Amino acid sequence: MSIQENLKNIKSSIPEHVTLVAVSKTKPVSDIMEAYHAGQRIFGENKIQEMAEKHEDMPKDIEWHMIGHVQRNKVKYMASFVSLIHGVDNFKLLKEINKQAKKHDRIIDCLLQIKIGSEDSKFGMTPSEASEIIHSKDFSGLKNIRITGVMGMATFTDNKVQIKQEFELLKSTFNILKPLNTANCKLQTISMGMSGDYPLAIDCGSTMIRVGSSIFGSRNYN
Ligand SMILES: *Cc1c(COP(=O)(O)O)cnc(C)c1O
């Protein structure tokens, strides 16, 4: 099926309150433009350089989401345009995002990445580390970032029971942190669910899904 048809099918199968991030990493501008012409405006990338190049080349009404692991020294390459950074998993990174956002006189929205999967390679902090950060005095001084939610990646497994438990952990973390409503912390987004598990993620409370291969086809990393 075409990119346009895939998008239409997914859009029609998800509730209206769920935001679809079309994950376009490794895909050429021509594919992304096909999705754009079908009305999609939110795209997710996992490499800052690649996202910056695509941002240069593409229409400026696109919202670019950084969904991958972020290296502190590369924040400056996306600070002028990125609309949401999903993978914030430490305070030093948050401070750097704040510093770069300030240079551009803007506020950058961020999600705290919570480690819900069991693999060592999955980045993220524990729910209590997240809570500690937003309670800290240092955090309240960061005026150029805003924490708008949490993000998590489930373990890569066929075990639906395990995946469901992991999604539920993210949802409960969100529920615990949500009352901490401050100037730079307003939790509204739960980013969870990918091509293989987004219906389950939505059942568990996801408000933002990140879908790549079900829209653009499988990826070739070579
Ligand atoms: C690649 C990626 C996705 C999309 O994965 P698909 O299985 O292709 O839908 C979602 N989230 C993150 C963080 C990713 O890196």
In short:
This is Pyridoxal phosphate homeostasis protein. With 222 residues, the protein is of the alpha/beta class.
Domain count: the total is: 1
Let me know the average pLDDT. Answer: 96
Small-molecule binders here are:
pyridoxal-5'-phosphate
State the strand order across the main sheet: 7-6-5-4-3-2-1-8
Please identify the top-level CATH class.
Answer: Alpha Beta
Percent helix: 25-40%
CATH fold field value: TIM Barrel
Strand residues, percent: 15-25%
How many β-strand stretches? 8
| Coarse morphology | globular
Low-confidence stretches: none
In N-to-C order, the SSE pattern is: HEHEHEEHEHHEHEHEH
> Which class best fits the helix and strand makeup?
alpha/beta
Helical stretch count?
A: 9
- Name the CATH architecture: Alpha-Beta Barrel
Family: Belongs to the pyridoxal phosphate-binding protein YggS/PROSC family.
Protein name: Pyridoxal phosphate homeostasis protein
Function: Pyridoxal 5'-phosphate (PLP)-binding protein, which is involved in PLP homeostasis.
Organism: Algibacter agarivorans
